[in-house]
Amino acid sequence: MISVRLLLNPGHAPARRIESEAELPPALKAANVGSGDLVLPSPVNAHDHGYGIRTMDFGALDDALEVWIPGLRLRPRTDPYLEALVAFGRLARTGVGATMHCHNSLNVDRLVDEAKDVMRAASDIGIRLALSCPLLDRDAWAYDGGPQRLKSFLSASDWQALEPTIPAYAPIRTQLAAVEAVAAANSSSLVDVQYGPIGPQWCSNALLESIAEASAVSNRRIHMHLLESPRQRIWLDRRFPEGVVNYLDRIGFLSPRLAVAHGVQLRPDEYALLAERGVQLVSNPTANLRLRSGVAPVAAIAEAGGPVFAIGLDGTGFDDDQDLWREMRLLHLVHGGRGLIRRLTAGQLFDAAIRTGAQVIDAQDADDFTVVDYQAMIADALFDDIDEAEVLLTRMSAAYAKGLIVSGREVMRDGKLTGVDFDAALRELKAQAKTDLPRLEQQRPLVRALSEATRAYYAAWPGVS
Question: DSSP secondary-structure letter at 365?
Answer without folding.
Answer: T
